[in-house]
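[User] Once you have settled down, look closely at the record that follows, and write a paragraph about the fold.
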Amino acid sequence: METELKSLEEKVFLLLRLYQDTCIENKKLREELADSHAQCKKLNEKIHVAVDRLETLLLNIPDNEQ
């Protein structure tokens, strides 16, 4: 009986440690995901600025009609 209780106690502590490790990892992953979303948003904004500049440049190219 004592051995079984000791084994159960060890398993419970292992489960708690794994749960805590998983919580820490999930928090880290959520932060990384938020950073990735922010970086993606910035890159999309840069793309839109570049597209606008290219459109402006294309509109200002003179026609070489003869």
Notes: Residues 30-57 form one domain. The chain has a mean pLDDT of 95.
